[in-house]
Each structure stands twice: as C-alpha cells, then as structure tokens.
Amino acid sequence: MGHRIVVLGGGTGGTLVANRLWRSYAHSEQVEITVVDSNDRHVYQPALLFVPFGLASLDEIVRPRSKQLHSGINYEMSAVDHVDLPANRVHLANGREIDYDVLVVATGAVLQPEETPGMTGPGWMQKVFTFYSPEGAGALEGALATFSSGHIVVNPIDMPIKCPVAPLEFCFLADWYFKERGVRDQVQISYVTPLDGAFTMPTSSRMLGNMLAEKNIELVSEFNTGEVDGKEGRLISYDGRELPFDLAVVIPLHAGADYVGRSPGLGDQLNFVPSDEHTLQSKARPNVFVIGDAANVPTSKAGSVTHFEGEVLAANVRAFLAGEELAASFDGHSNCFIEAGFSKALLIDFNYDTEPLPGRFPAKIGVPLLKESRLNHLGKLMFQWFYWHVLLPGRDIPGLGSGMPHAGKLEAPGDGTDEQNESDEKEVHSNAG
Fold it and tell me: What is the pTM of this model?
C-alpha cells in the first residue's frame, strides 16, 4: 500500500499541491491522494474584484473543484468535523474517517462578518457590502449601477486579509468607473484603514498613498472599526470616531476554518495553523504541512504566495515520506498586479526580507515594477488563463521558480534606485488622472 496523503481544501493551494504531488510521483501507486472540500465550486477569487464593475461575471469564474484535479486523485465532498492529530485521522462531517500519513492543510481563510457588531444587521447587502464573496460581489454590482452621488467608504476591518491590495484596487476602479459614467464629481470615495498608511511596506505605502491623493480618494488611516451601523450609515471606531457613508464596501475579519479550532493542537486563536515559514511544515506535527491562507507565515495571503509555496511544499512532502531532510527554501515570495483603472496596473514583487523595489520582473527584460502600465494590466487579465491551465494543474512556469528573483531589480547602493523611484512616481502621477 502506498503513502496516504490527505489534502484538506480544494481551493488554489489544495488543488495545485495535490496535482503537483500526483505529477511528481509519476502517477504511480506509491501514493494515494485524497482532496476534501465541502462543496464543488472552485472560485477564481482575483476576478471577484471585477464583478461589481461589470468587468467579469460569476459564470466565468466558477468551475467544479473536482474537474481541476487529475483523474488519479480522489475527491471527497464533505465538511471537516475535526482532525485527530495523535491518531493521524480526519473526521468528516458526513461520518467518514480518513487516515493519513501526511496531511496538508489548505482550507484557506474564511470571512467573519458576524464578528463585527452591526455588519450583518440592517443594511447588510443593501448599503453595506463586501466583494470578497461571489454573493457579495454580485449584489454590489447591482448597488453600484444605481449609485450616482454620495459617499462610498472602502474599509478593511483588520489584517490579515486575503489579497491585501484588493481594497485599494477597488478604490482605483471605482474612480475610473464613476468617471466613465460622468458622475465622479458627485461621488466621494474614502479608503478607511486600520494601518498608519495606505499599505504595510514603506515604499508601496508611499506610492499607493500618492495614487489615492492623485485620484482624489480620501485616505483615513488608523481607523479601527468596532461597529458598522448600516441603518444610519456610519462606521464607528473603537475610539468613538464616526464616519458617515451612503454605501460601505467592507472587508470582514478573516480567520482560519472552523474545524481547526475543533482540532486540539492544530491552530492558533484565529484558527490559522502555525508553520515553519521556510519549510511550510506545521508546528503541530511533523507530518502536517500547510499551504496558502491557512498558514500563519509572515507574508501576504495572496494567490501568488500559494503558487510559490506549492513547489516547496510538494518537494518537502516527498522528502518527509522518503525520510530525507526538508528544504528550508520558501523565502516568502509574493507578487501582485495592482489594478489602477483606465486599463493600467502596477506590479509589486517582494519576500520576507525585501520590500517592493523598482525595476523589471522577472529579469532585466520583463514587465515594469512599481509603475503603472498597460502591459501590467494585460498581465493581470492573462493570469486567469495561467491560473486554470498552468498553476492549478501543477505545472512549472518556465523561468519563474518559487524564490524571489533579484535580476532586474534596482536594489544595490548607487544603482540609481532613488532616481528610478522618483522617475517611477512621476510616471505614476502623470498616468493617474
């Protein structure tokens, strides 16, 4: 009998790592791979940003989970009740039990709107929305179509969240959307964040803050929302400040999957799974690995991170089963196309130790970093094809491994970085209107 690998979660991380393992074992009988998920709807989450603006439809971005897995992989459709770590056994909500030699936790992050007082009360899905779920994105499309004047607030309640730049992208696209409709002068847009700036890292925060200013989008920083009053149209912070709105786009609190909290020793207080940030082996048990948003590693909860983790995790699962040393090779690599509106986007690329830098990606001949361009916008649009046909099937992208590339980046002292930053920011500003 071969090794039993059980993958909890059939989203981006679970699908790509199951497919990578299936491919790396050359479709042999050395392993039995089972993927577990509670439903058969695989959502291409980056496109949820476009749905409210009529730029994508839910029909285009949802596919069956089971169809994304190679035919030799078992698919079990059930919620997880809990994991018995000492027994190496998963207990499913449908009553089944599955034993494993290696467990991969890939159940992502879940939205918790009910954790913020008032959010799901009066006004929910009427004047208080989120685009982080298919249902919310679809409802918000209808609300925006009839919104011609008033105050829109975009508010991530707290970090961490999936794709931390998406709320900023929403602001930029809203600016474009209302300009296209000829009503931008009648619409006030505010970006309301608990952070002390537009983003977490200094270079990106400065540049994205400048873009907000150029687009006449108000930045309200250090606002920690404690209550959403949908009836009266108010965000109320923990320190008592109030911010009125006519339409609120909120990004709810995130946590790990509920079953993690019912599995003693597996997760932390937020139900994320503590993991080694370089090997992706859990701190709960050596035969448990974690990928994607379910992990508490100190990098973005973004699809690109999951992609880069997949290569390392699959290799380390194989090494563990072979009794070999794990490779501590994941460097926190993340990159993200930031949609800026007007058919332009920026690209940022960073890891645990290096914040976003100007230059080119993935090498000296490549797409521009920290600079608005139509090429980056096309890259973001084309990524959807790569997602379904390259990333999920577990294929490598030629010339792009898991580690952050340094070629093409302007990062050494005296290399012109300061001048490049200034030039890039000027170009961003000139393109922002």
Answer: 0.92
Show pLDDT as tens, one digit a residue, over the chain (433 residues).
Answer: 689 999 999 999 999 999 999 999 976 678 999 999 999 999 999 999 999 999 999 999 999 999 999 999 999 999 999 999 999 999 999 999 999 999 999 999 999 999 999 999 999 999 999 999 999 999 999 999 999 999 999 999 999 999 999 999 999 999 999 999 999 999 999 999 999 999 988 888 999 999 999 999 999 999 999 999 999 999 999 999 999 999 999 999 999 999 999 999 999 999 999 999 999 999 999 999 999 999 999 999 999 999 999 999 999 999 999 999 999 999 999 999 999 999 999 999 999 999 999 999 999 888 999 999 999 999 999 999 999 999 999 998 777 889 999 989 986 433 443 444 444 333 333 333 3
Type of residue numbered 133: S
Q: Using CA atoms, how far apart are residues 182 and 180, in angstroms rounded to an integer?
A: 5
Q: Domains along the chain?
A: 3-49+61-108+257-321 (3.50.50.60), 113-254 (3.50.50.60), 334-432 (no CATH)
> At CB < 8 A and 24+ separation, what contacts does 132-139 make?
132/48, 132/161, 132/162, 132/166, 132/251, 132/252, 133/48, 134/43, 134/48, 134/51, 134/58, 134/62, 137/48, 137/49, 137/51, 137/52, 137/58, 138/51, 138/58
Distance of CA 331 to the CA centre of its chain: 17
